[in-house]
Design brief:
Elements lengths: L2 H24 L5 E13 L4 E12 L5 E12 L4 H30 L8 E4 L1
Helix pairs in contact: 1-2
């Protein structure tokens, strides 16, 4: 595996871990769902902006029934340096996490989950 491929693989692992840990932290309810995220774009652009475009699906944990599907688009000024760009990309990722967590919480409330049930949300 080449160096570029290793960086991509490591980046995907970091992205997944970031979403998984942040999403669980955002959840204020007990759930059993699977979240699939297909990231179309997550980058800084040549005009100094960040861009995140991600399609996502929430599935019933025990089954494969699609409960909700959406797309998140986020972006903003990348800033003058790498640190600023990284912070801006993190903000875009936080937007995605909040949108998913909000929908998962809403679905769980509709389903009637309560705090005595287990907490499980996996990102695929």
């Amino acid at each position: 595996m080449g160096a570029a491929a290793q960086r991509i693989d490591q980046g995907e692992i970091s992205f997944e871990r970031s979403i998984d840990s942040t999403l669980v932290a955002h959840l204020r309810t007990k759930v059993d769902y699977q979240v699939e995220i297909d990231v179309q774009r997550f980058e800084t652009t040549s005009d100094g902006q960040t861009q995140l475009i991600a399609n996502w699906i929430i599935r019933d944990g025990p089954g494969s029934k699609i409960l909700y599907a959406s797309q998140t688009t986020a972006g903003g000024p990348a800033g003058p340096d790498g640190v600023s760009a990284s912070a801006a990309l993190s903000s875009d990722l936080a937007t995605l996490n909040k949108e998913i967590a909000s929908r998962v919480t809403e679905l769980a409330q509709h389903r009637g989950f309560n705090n005595s049930e287990h907490k499980s949300a996996s990102v695929l």
